[in-house]
User: Fold this.
Amino acid sequence: MTDPVTLALNADQLIKAALREDISTEDISTNAVMRGYKKGKADLICKQDGVICGLKVFERVFKILDPDTEIRFFAEDGEKVTKTQHIAEVTGDIRVILQGERTALNFLQRMSGIATYTAEVAALLKGSKTKLLDTRKTTPNMRLFEKYAVRCGGGNNHRYNLSDGVMLKDNHIGAAGGIAQAVKAAKEYSSFVRKIEVEVESLAQCEEALAAGADIIMLDNMSVEDMKKAVKLVGGKALTECSGNVTRENIKNIISTEVDYVSSGALTHSAPILDLSLKNLKPLEE
Assistant:
């Protein structure tokens, strides 16, 4: 996300769509009080402790509106920030600062909130062999930004989208007629470089997925004791992943199972925003 080429290719269209959502024809409030160009400056202030994420997206909002807008940062993505901390200065056309303020903050607050929540969950796994993953339970059209925020918070990304990897869930298995049939069909269809992950809900299904040649076995909504038994049953012949209602409150219970990965949709669908504000806007003498 910090690479300007990647940002331009993948993020610009989403940022522009967000701006169009907020400015359908004009910013009538700004145009009413500011009829022409006037240079000004505003401060980006943190209003609570957390992990900052999305600064380049914040900047890009203003740059799209006016390339001459200047942003001076006093922090970097992934850094811990504290309440009242001065994060950045935005300098440029006052009309542009006012027009871009909400959209820029929406991205930054959402991404920082996810990074903050992820950091809190990742800290609970520190010292264990289990790695933290996100899921596809993201806000529509925000996945690019939300998955980047997970990485900033110390988590890891699962597959990005449906084209990214083979994951056979309960409905795929039901459609195929069983785990063995689903894995066989997936091996025949997908490239040999693709790993095949199978979701199981019982020890019997785990054994069946292992026999079918699954590369990754997802233990879905299983009890801690059954997950321990499943990991022992797999015995390193496949990677193991735990999933299903994993939150900051219960993730420590999973450490004892020694699964390789734990995926949590809560990282993206339940993280509260980090409170940030653009304040102290004032005209500058030129």
In short: The two ends are 34 Å apart (CA to CA). Residues 123-269 form a domain with the TIM Barrel fold (CATH 3.20.20.70).
